[in-house]
Design brief:
The protein is an alpha+beta fold. It has 2 helices and 8 strands. Strands 1-2-3-4 form a 4-stranded antiparallel sheet, covered by helices on one side. Strands 5-6 form a two-stranded antiparallel ribbon. It is elongated.
Length: 109
């Protein structure tokens, strides 16, 4: 990433900055998220490259792998406590599990 680029609005110089990005009321923190800030008018923006990078970080950091375990005569997957709290899941609640293809299941609360 370049340290300075031309602002897409006014064509003036915009400087590369890094900042913590807080999502979901601060529950999710992305450190050192890049963006550009216009020196004179203080306009802030991100390039498509920066947005693609951010999207990759979010997808990489918020994927949970869980082992399949035995629960009696059934197979089960545990849910991380943070996910359970976020979705307000409680013991005894019902969820929907729908096959989308041979490699993907969709879960709905």
């Amino acid at each position: 990433m370049e340290k300075e680029i031309n602002c897409h609005l006014c064509k003036g110089k915009a400087e590369l900055k890094f900042e913590e990005l807080l999502l979901d009321n601060g529950k999710i923190i992305i450190k050192d998220s890049p963006y550009y800030k216009r020196k004179k008018c203080k306009e802030e923006f991100s390039t498509s490259e920066q947005m693609h990078l951010l999207s990759g970080q979010i997808n990489q950091n918020f994927v949970f792998q869980r082992p399949i375990i035995n629960a009696g005569r059934s197979l089960a997957i545990t849910i991380p406590v943070d996910i359970a709290q976020f979705y307000n899941l409680k013991k005894g609640m019902k969820i929907k599990i729908m096959p989308e293809n041979r490699h993907r299941l969709r879960v709905e609360v």
